From TrEMBL:
Keywords: Cell inner membrane, Cell membrane, Membrane, Transmembrane, Transmembrane helix, Transport. InterPro entries: AcrB_DN_DC_subdom, Acrflvin-R. The gene is mdtC_3. Pfam families: ACR_tran. It comes from Klebsiella variicola. This is Multidrug transporter MdtC. GO terms for biological process: transmembrane transport. The chain crosses the membrane at residues 281-300, 333-358, 378-399, 411-437.
Length: 456
């Protein structure tokens, strides 16, 4: 194992973006002797041009054809959203009540994901390199020999499970007495041929007299989620591939292989959080808009002018998405959070204008056109001050160069882009929408009054 670790270390150290490498053997995800962990420290962003994810993908390509070993790399994140421990950033899990069914379909799912060119470092936590011996009991013969199955279970338990049989008490301490076979007898399945079971008459009966032994492969560990056995297939994304695209490709691949209904499959961790957020995002936005409309309607005692304020929100969303597109930044969960934050930040421009205009109409008797013009002139400075304060507050997030810049950057870009475009547009569109909705409201009231007079 040590020569392979040294060879991998040389490949990693040769990358121009790597600052240092630390490795530890026997401490992998399963703590087995055939695994090792590598901790790669990258140079500062000012000394390299690639992101952590791009470096991981580059090193994965360099080590993909290494004989006798596989390396899986992923960029470390400060924020972890659930999921299981895995060798890659995103996870797709399978659950089944039948362990045999799970062992059959996990390699098929892993192969289907590995065949998708947009994914890399596809790996499974299901390791079947262990060995097992299945004892097949001939119950009829065991009954004739007077062997009780409970006695057989007790004998195997005493021999292989390291059962505590007593406790020795001392003045200052106590010691557990554990019974088990010596290590030299547990390394070879042939020891089963030498085991004896005491029957009902007190005689010793060889285990091989009524049993047969079948060898095979077994998983090194069996993970559970809830009460079902589970396995996880982890994967990374190639450069330029969004998580939404990867999820669509994976769902299409699962539909092609015909995964049975008895095997439940789904994303875990960050991929699951993104899937749930994108599915509920329309309802969240509708609920937020409804709450804003009700509050503003009560505040201004108007059914119309809350719509004037809400009309500023589309430009913010377009600005956020446009800047993410121009900077080639993925629409991550953090970016979606930034877009939701814009709903609360951007509408303050229209609130400051509409609040002044309505007050001028009702208290000073101005016409709608005079009121909105005065609102634009008087409220221009506070609008610019609050917008610039929020914009420059988001810039450190968008332009940061720390180790977690990849996590924070989408949030800052979404806020900065939304604020910039909405500021440019709402100063012109809000007065137009205000006057249009006011004239529409007045025309509707006049028409309604005519209908009432005609009816009376």
């Amino acid at each position: 194992m040590a020569p392979k670790v040294q060879a991998f270390t040389k490949i990693i150290e040769a990358d121009p973006a790597v600052d240092s490498v630390m490795s530890s053997m026997g401490s992998g995800m399963f703590g087995s002797r055939n695994s090792a962990n590598f901790f790669v420290r990258l140079k500062d962003l000012s000394e390299r041009s690639a992101t952590a994810t791009e470096v991981a993908n580059r090193l994965s390509m360099k080590t993909s054809h290494f004989p006798g070993g596989q390396m899986f790399l992923m960029a470390a994140q400060d924020l972890h959203i659930g999921g299981r421990s895995a060798n890659a950033s995103y996870q797709y899990s399978l659950q089944a009540d039948d362990l045999g069914l799970l062992r059959t379909w996990t390699p098929k799912v892993q192969a289907a994901l590995a065949a998708i060119p947009q994914l890399n470092s596809v790996d499974s936590d299901s390791q079947t390199g262990g060995q097992e011996v299945v004892i097949q009991i001939d119950r009829d013969r065991a009954t004739r020999l007077g062997v009780n199955v409970n006695m057989l279970d007790t004998m195997l338990n005493n021999a292989f499970s390291q059962r505590q049989i007593a406790t020795l008490y001392h003045t200052l301490n106590q010691y557990h007495v554990v019974m088990t076979l010596a290590d030299s007898y547990t390394r070879d399945p042939a020891i089963l041929q030498e085991l004896y079971v005491v029957n009902d008459d007190g005689d010793r009966v060889p285990l091989s007299a009524f049993s047969s032994f079948v060898g095979g492969n077994a998983p090194l560990s069996v993970a559970h989620q809830g009460q079902s056995a589970t396995s996880t297939v982890a994967f990374n994304l190639n450069d330029g591939v969004s998580l939404e695209q990867a999820q669509a490709l994976i769902k299409n691949a699962m539909a092609k292989i015909g995964l049975p209904s008895s095997v439940q499959a789904g994303f875990q961790g960050t991929a699951k959080a993104y899937e749930e957020l994108t599915a509920t995002m329309p309802w969240l936005i509708v609920a937020a808009l409804a709450a804003i409309y009700i509050v503003l309607g009560v505040l201004y005692e108007s059914y119309v002018h809350p719509l004037t304020i809400l009309s500023t929100l589309p430009s913010a969303g377009v600005g956020a998405l446009l800047l993410l597109l121009l900077t080639n930044t993925q629409l991550t969960v953090i970016a979606l959070i930034g877009i939701i934050l814009l709903i609360g930040i951007v509408k303050k421009n229209a609130i400051m204008m509409i609040d002044f205009a309505l007050d001028a109409e009702r208290r000073l008797g101005m016409t709608p056109q005079q009121a909105i013009v005065q609102a634009c002139l008087i409220r221009f400075r506070p609008i610019m001050m609050t917008t610039l304060a929020a914009f420059f507050g988001a810039l450190p997030l968008a332009l940061g160069s720390g180790g977690d810049a990849d996590l924070r950057s989408p949030l800052g870009l979404a806020i900065a882009g939304g604020l910039a475009l909405s500021q440019l547009l709402t100063l012109f569109t809000t007065p137009v929408v205000y006057l249009w909705l006011d004239s529409l409201s007045r025309a509707t009231r006049r028409q309604w009054q005519r209908l009432r007079h005609a009816g009376s």
